[in-house]
Automatic annotation (TrEMBL):
Domain Chorismate mutase: 3-94
Keyword Lyase part of the UniProt annotation: no
Annotated localization: Cytoplasm
Chief place of localization: cytoplasm
Keyword vocabulary terms for this entry: Amino-acid biosynthesis, Aromatic amino acid biosynthesis, Cytoplasm, Isomerase, NAD, Oxidoreductase, Tyrosine biosynthesis
GO molecular function: chorismate mutase activity; prephenate dehydrogenase (NAD+) activity
Lineage: Bacteria, Pseudomonadati, Pseudomonadota, Gammaproteobacteria, Alteromonadales
Organism of origin: Shewanella scandinavica
Protein name in the entry: T-protein
Amino acid sequence: MNEKTTAELEHLRGLIDGVDQQLLHLLRKRLDLVAQVGTVKHGAGLPIYAPQREAAMLAKRREEAKNMGIAPQLIEDILRRLMRESYLNEKDVGFKQVKKDLGSVVIVGGKGQLGGLFSQMLTLSGYQVELLDKDDWQQADSLFADAGMVLVTVPIAITCELIREKLNQLPADCILADLTSIKTEPVNAMLEAHSGPVVGFHPMFGPDVGSLAKQVVVVCHGREPDKYQWLLEQIAIWGARIVEAEPERHDSAMQLVQAMRHFSTFVYGLNLCKEEADIDTLLQFSSPIYRLELAMVGRLFAQSPELYADIIFAQQDSQHAIGDYLDNYREALELLKRGDRDEFIKQFQTVAKWFGDFAPQFQRESRIMLQSVNDMKTN
Ligand SMILES: C=C(O[C@@H]1C=C(C(=O)O)C=C[C@H]1O)C(=O)O
């Protein structure tokens, strides 16, 4: 590089630094405004996540960007990232407490990760939360006596037994709820053990989400829904979307969404391990899609084996769904062995047709994810 080029670059880079610093000041200003919105919402009991406002705002900014010669997707990406920050910041202000006269909430297994998250959200909403873990059962009776709600979030393998043996003497009007990732058996166990209000939840996210904005919570009604309607409103204020489902319908969807998904991820990891794949080398040659896939597989093994064993082993029917998968895998492998390229293409087209409009939709969504995977690279 000659001196002139160096000087020119330095000059321009200095200007860019100045613009980025202005951006920082603007970000500070935006965060402060969002915090004020948070306070207003807190006072009025409005949900943290306002999808219509977001859609309207994004549409306007996209239009304005276009008129300014800026790619609409650029402002959309930036604003979506900023809005994620807004949810975290609004959360700190706390949330309106929908039910004032509840009594305490006892979270059984509250020292676990998901229990911890719900404990935090309930506390931020003004509820008195008591944690009951396996070492403090001697306090159980006195905690239950004042409980307006008991929330069970213990490993799946012990959930039903615990409900039947330990939660069968709750005050009659106490709400009994759980967060287990299967629903039929726990909801039945709660209905058997307790004669008062019963409701099952399955939060469709892990404990590391930061904010519940845009997350999904499945609810399976048990008994006396009018007694726990406030809780559904409370969850909506946290920003989550409530999806109602029959326990059986939920569980059969979960076979594919969870048991099969996690099991095939497990086998993928097992295969890499047995083949003694060199992850460093794989990463060196990885395309963004491979890196994303590897990240999704690898992240499983950063978590608790017991949790995944529970999710996969909890449902008797999972083995059938996984067995079907294996049959399809075997049949597809036969195509490969036979060198039947034409049949492969035929089946590909059948599946593509079956995906319908979802295929291009997923392609668009994944493009954005893959681009951010690429952005994360540092060399
Ligand atoms: C700030 C608000 O809360 C959330 C965050 C938004 C943002 O950062 O612009 C917009 C809508 C809400 O989902 C709001 O409601 O205006």
